[in-house]
Amino acid sequence: MCGIVGYTGRDQAVGYLLEGLSALEYRGYDSAGVEVVGTDGALHGVKCAGRVSVLRERCETANLVGTTGIAHTRWATHGAPTDRNSHPHRDCTGRIAIVHNGIIENFRELRSYLARNGHALASDTDSEVIAHLIEDAWAGPCRGDLVTAVRHAVRRLRGSWAIAVVCADAPGEIVCARNGSPLVVASTPDGAFAASDVTPLAGVTSRVIQLENGQLARLRASGEVTVFDEEGAPVDAPAVMEIDWDASAATLGGYADFMAKEIAEQPEALERLLSGRLGEKGILLDELSMSEKDLADVDLVYLIACGTSYHVGLIARTLIQTWAKVPVICDFASEFNYEQDVLVTPHTLCVVITQSGETADTLTAARRMRGMGCKVFAVTNVLGSTAAREADGVLYVQAGPEVCVASTKAYTAQMVASALLALRLAQAKGEMGRPEVERHYRDLCALPGLIREVISRSWQDKRAAAVFRRAHSALFLGRGVNATTASEGALKLKEISYLHAEAYPAGEMKHGPIALLEPGFPVVAIVPADRVHDKTVSNIQEVIARGAVCVAVATDGDEDVASLVEHVLWIPPVGDELLVPIVAVVHLQMLARYVARTRGCDVDKPRNLAKSVTVE
Ligand code: G6P
Questions:
Q1: β-strands 159-167, 173-179: how paired?
Q2: Please, what is the end-to-end C-alpha distance for the chain in angstroms?
Q3: What angle do CA 182, 185, 190 make, to 5 degrees?
Q4: Where are the domain boundaries for CATH 3.40.50.10490 in the chain?
Q5: Ligand 1 lined by 73 (C-beta under 6 Å)
């Protein structure tokens, strides 16, 4: 993970760098640092454990003057989050500094090699070796040519990297290199920028260059950006991307935190995604880039994802199997990548679901699937992300920038995208006639209104949050698609409130988790009006009989639940019971947020987590 940013131009660098780090902080926030090439011809930097706000305070007193600099916000992989392990890392001469996002797999071997050759390494990180390898190249045949020195150094690396390098002897220049980890560069009238993704650049320019794996870039203070291939030859037409995101979308806009803002943005996000999706021939999903015949031939769908996106996959599995009658396998990317035998048919469609489009395990899985000859379709939120660029087809869920580490609006948008995909497949396979497709589309289009209604009932979640104040653990129960809603509710709660939470299919509770129940133990039951409603009500009875406190998500007018349970989180009736998870989860998002706030947690930046997990 980690976020990197670089600026060289006519303005002072530190302001841009700190702003850039704040925008990238969702990638990691256990330590941060900045380094500038000073007017005295030396490097000057500040780095420290803690968040970007801590670095900002230190920078105020350090008075870093210089128009070329690099900066980093870290999510520790190798070495504890300490001042010493924070980036940037310097070489032995103190005249070269690097920032790195990724993992250098052969760092032990390189550290021993460097130590044998007289280098003194100052940190426990894998990244520091890069600075010393560049030092060797610069001291040798590459002196005066930073691009070549960096090119020589990265040739010795195994693993993944996005790096930015400054050298006191090459003022007004930053050299970047990419392999595996994302990196964008941009030329503007005020100078040239580099960043892990477009977020820090959205207010600065609307055109960025996405570096491809193996490419390097040289940024000059004049604003000139030159991209080079692995052999060092300039690339004529590097991949330019137009940013169409509104920079203000990444500001709080009056909300207490990004989670609150992003929960509130769900109805609009779904409206954007659903708009214009019904045409003369039914559901329009041209993004699939597949012919009608290829779609009709699909005989197996593989859904691969991580974290919250994996929960989307579980819901999508039911939607696709029920509507399109195609068998579906849903797997965690991190598990899939190490499975020995993967069953694929000649007509397998692989769908990777990833908000960021940069999750390392998901990207590896997509590449493995492509290697086996499968078409890969990406459902993602981030324009031009690696998953989007490498896939055969991509559906952008258009939820807008999601800043809070815990996913909310991307989750519901990805579920709606999955429903569209299920309908499109059902249509192509002749499993659904036009009236049925239209009915389902109408149900989907009703979701934003239903979510608005749930959001207006947030007081119910606020009140129910009191149940968790002194709890150490919680159990979430649901059946069918709402067993997944339970899993997502439990994940949200533990991510942001650090309260242990476990989800179980309600009918399975009697085979183990029931042993946990004691007076006051909180249980959240998802019990909408559906075909398994009465079964789940029986499970609630079992919970209450043991003195546990039940919070239920139930459909308006449900007297059975109202008479049993003290705290009901009410949802309005949903057209199709398979779509209930998209509405019910909104209560669980709000509940988790209130519990986290009651417990004094930072809901947007939970400890140890990062939004974009770009390491394996
Ligand atoms: C991290 C985030 C989660 C996210 C998961 C998968 O763990 O904290 O919120 O669900 O990565 O991310 P992706 O971008 O692939 O959906």
A1: antiparallel
A2: 10
A3: 150
A4: 258-455, 458-598
A5: no
CB of 210 sitting under 6 A from ligand 1: no
DSSP letters for 44-95: EEEEEES-HHHHHHHHHHH----SEEEEEEE--SSS-SSTTTSSPEE-TTSS
> What does the pLDDT average to over 102-110?
94
72 Cβ contact list (under 8 Å, min separation 6): 2, 3, 4, 5, 21, 32, 33, 34, 47, 86, 87, 88, 99, 100, 101
Q: In what order do the strands lie in the sheet with 549-555?
A: 500-505, 473-478, 522-527, 549-555, 567-571
Model pLDDT for residues 241-267, shown as the tens digit of each residue: 887 756 556 678 889 999 999 999 999
Tell me the CATH architecture of domain 3-246.
4-Layer Sandwich (3.60)
Question: Which amino acid is located at 41 in the chain?
Answer: G
The pTM (predicted TM-score) of the whole model is: 0.84
Give CATH 3.60.20.10 domain extents, the chain: 3-246
In this structure, are residues 508 and 566 in contact, taking their beta carbons and an 8 Å threshold?
A: no
Give me the residues paired with residue 428 across strands.
none
**Ligand 1 atom 4: residue of nearest CA:** 307
Asked whether the beta carbons of 429 and 326 are under 8 A apart, the reply is yes
Q: 258-455, what's its fold?
A: Rossmann fold (3.40.50)
- Give the CA distances from residue 253 to residues 175, 247, 248, 333, in Å, rounded to whole numbers and listed in that order: 36, 12, 8, 35
Active-site residue numbers? 2, 611
Tokens of 442: 């109408």
Torsion angle in degrees (nearest 10) through CA of 116, 122, 124, 128: -80
| Three-class SS state of 48 | strand
Residues 565-613 pLDDT 10s:
999 999 999 999 999 999 999 999 999 999 999 999 999 999 988 887 8
Residue 251, number of CB atoms within 10 A of its CB: 14
Query: Omega into 435 within 30° of 0, i.e. cis?
Result: no
Please state which architecture CATH assigns to domain 458-598: 3-Layer(aba) Sandwich (3.40)
Report the interhelical angle of 409-428 vs 266-274 (nearest 10°): 20
CA-CA distance, 34 to 290, in Å (whole number)?
Answer: 46
Buried b (16+ CB within 10 A) or exposed e, 97-111: bbbbbbbbeebeebb
User: Which H/E stretch holds residue 581?
Assistant: helix 580-598
337: part of which helix (H) or strand (E)? Answer: none
Pairwise CA distance, residues 294 & 349, whole Å: 10
Residue with CA closest to ligand 1 atom 1 = 611
Distance (angstroms) between ligand 1 centre and the Cα of 309 equals 7
CB 127 within 8 A of CB 104: yes
> Does ligand 1 lie within 6 Å of residue 306's CB atom?
yes
Query: How many residues are listed for the chain in this entry?
Result: 616
Q: State mean pLDDT over 4-18.
A: 96
List, for residues 438-470, the tens digit of each pLDDT value. 999 999 999 999 999 999 999 999 999 999 988
Scan for tokens 């499109």, then name that residue. Answer: 424
